[in-house]
Design brief:
Arc Repressor Mutant, subunit A, HTH_MarR-typ, MarR/SlyA-like, MarR family transcriptional regulator, WH-like_DNA-bd_sf
Length: about 150
């Protein structure tokens, strides 16, 4: 890797933080309760019909305990609820409450405005190309290389 050149994961992380920071600021300006980046991410990967904590953790790339903690906080805030899983007596589905759906709709509006702002800054074509590249199937992560030597 070139010295001083940021890696692609660093650049993607910075881009993600740009959106998260702006979204959190907009929600705070709206008077919404403060949430963390992890809680934002959880909202983003949640299915409309409900999702198990284990599946949320997998989609977020975090531990089950981290996902559970985020769910618990959002349940306490009244944004999520836990309901019985229709095909498993041992599992619960996590889904948005009416207040959670309103918050999700507002976040979607803000993200659309942020995408338009980004297009004004770097060009609509660049944003479209970025989206197209990120939507390509990357496949499973590759196996780690063998030991150097």
């Amino acid at each position: 890797m070139n010295a001083g050149r940021r890696s692609l994961p660093q650049l993607l992380g910075e881009a993600r933080r740009w959106f998260d920071d702006a979204l959190l600021a907009a929600l705070e300006a709206d008077g919404a309760e403060q949430v963390s980046s992890t809680q934002l991410q959880l909202f983003a990967v949640l299915d409309e019909r409900g999702t198990t904590v284990s599946e949320l953790a997998r989609r977020m790339g975090v531990t089950r305990q981290t996902a559970h903690k985020a769910v618990h906080t959002l349940v306490t805030m009244g944004l999520l609820e836990q309901v019985p899983h229709p095909s498993s007596a041992r599992q619960l589905l996590i889904r948005r409450t009416p207040a959670g759906r309103r918050a999700h709709e507002r976040a979607t509006q803000v993200l659309g405005a942020l995408e338009r702002t980004l297009a004004e800054r770097i060009g609509g074509r660049s944003v479209s190309e970025l989206r197209a590249v990120l939507e390509l199937p990357w496949g499973e992560p590759p196996e780690p290389p063998g030991p150097a030597g």
